[in-house]
Amino acid sequence: MFETKIFNFFGFVFISFFVSSYLFAAEIYPDVTWLHYKSPEQAGFTSERLDKIKKFYNKKSFSALLVVKDGAIAIDWGENDRRFPIHSIRKSLLSALYGIHSSSINFQASLADLNCNDNSLLTDQELSAKVFDVISSRSGVYLPAAAENNEMRLNKPARGSYKPSKYWWYNNWDFNVAGTLFSKITGEEILGSIATQLAAPLQMQDYRVTDGYYVKAESEHSAFQIRMSSRDLARFGLLYARGGVWNGKQLIPHEWVVKSTSAISNTNMGDKYPPYFGLMWWVEEDGSFSARGNGGHTLAVYPSLDMVVVLRTDTYLEHTVSAKSIHKMLSGIISISKGQQHSKPSLITETQQEADKKQIPELYRFNNASIALDNGLLVSINFKNETLFVDWGTGKFELSYLNNNRFIISDLHEPLEIEVNDVGELIDIKTPKLFFIQAATAAKYDDLLIAESWVEKAIKMNPNSPIPYVNLAKIQIERGNKEGAKENLQKALSIEVNNKQAKKLYQKILLNQYFFPGLMISILVGFYLRSYKGKV
């Protein structure tokens, strides 16, 4: 009897120790909300060097930084709950969708096999490109593509200069065609698939399918675009840090995660950029990898450290951070992350804050109302699920009601006004963004006075933003009103001290006004003195 009690006691102790050890060792995943370390130091981050990184972060145009270590948030700076555009990070999301369906996709099928062409008909050589060539950005097809920037357009190789699979080039034509092929092969629409295959199982807090949209250019192949919060991107990054596993379930085949984030191509873009590229992921020599978007948006994944880093910039306000600054920021975070981690860290559950929403007045509950701008752009207002949205072709932006006829565009943080007539019909929508679109249309036809008047309306509606003052200064420079431009650039800098566009334009005006004329006078005086000296 005594022996039995001793056995039961030690058995209980052993089982309790085993269970507690298992729970402590078990990987942490966010639930509806994230867990936060009580302090970064508990996650192993050294506080002295963290202060230096914070200073660098504040100095640059970053809008948010989120660092996840071992499944919980260690660093949370800025607007990590705000849905910013993710730009080219979208490509890594598409790579994940390919991975989910990888067992049923023939990656050796050619564009000809899949009856995939373009407005400019492809040559036989181009049609021989395979699906794998496309998703690795090695198709050898160099045609105009949607969502390209000027650098991509200007530096693109000549058409037909490389055969498929022989040369890597960061090519939006490939990425956009990868989207077309995904839908053609699987029968799934991309944005809907991201919602059901990724956002739902990862329990993304902020993502809505309405945050996505498609854009087209000269090519028939669209580029999909998405707005997403840092804390939702971090969930996607954690999925990849854990080899495609989420809470014990293999959402993406492990083989695909390894293959898509392994070095397939050399990028040869300098030491500020990752040296390799996989299947729509940038790859480092140490085995870490990242997804990157225009302006500095970065999702970096470090599987060996079980760490995810998300960096954001406010590209709504045209903010950008250089590749050099991104590299320095990531290197700094890695260097401070290897300290002694607390054996039993204190983890705090993130509180899900629901903003107090004013009820949308009945007057503005349009099922689907729209107006056309002078350039033919259709702007629509739609009320659904007790939420009012505006859409001008870049996804549906949620509106929060203020008072009278005024609203706030939630993600943009910009005002919007809705005008209706006596019978409740929509007659006008006013917002700085739409004023800028009208100004751009006027400027396109060299009607700079009209363009200026539209921007002045934007200033009147949103006087605390630097963007309208910068845009007005650009128009004034074109009209030769440099003093007026300087005045508006000073206003922009008084609102945002480090506004790069305002600084650059102001310096350009000063150079043209004072430096170059002064330089010419110095040259002429010097020439005159030399000539005079020679005569004496």
Describe this structure in words.
Helix content is 39%, strand content 19%. The chain is an alpha+beta fold. It has an eight-stranded antiparallel beta sheet, with helices on both faces. Strands 16-17-18-19-20-21-22 form a seven-stranded antiparallel beta sheet. A hairpin with a 5-residue loop joins strand 21 and strand 22. Helix 14 (466-478) packs antiparallel against helix 15 and helix 15 (482-495) crosses helix 16 (500-535). The longest helix has 36 residues, at 500-535. The N and C termini lie far apart (126 Å).
**Mean pLDDT score:** 90
Question: What is the 3D shape?
Answer: globular
Question: How are the strands of the biggest sheet laid out side by side?
Answer: 3-2-14-13-12-11-10-9
**Sheet with the most strands, sense and barrel status:** 8 strands, antiparallel
Low-confidence stretches: 1-25, 532-536
Distance between the termini: 126 Å
Number of helices: 16
Structural class per helix/strand content? alpha+beta
Number of strands: 22
> Beta fraction of the residues?
15-25%
**Which value, in Å, is the CA radius of gyration?**
27 Å
Can you give the helix content as a percent range? 25-40%
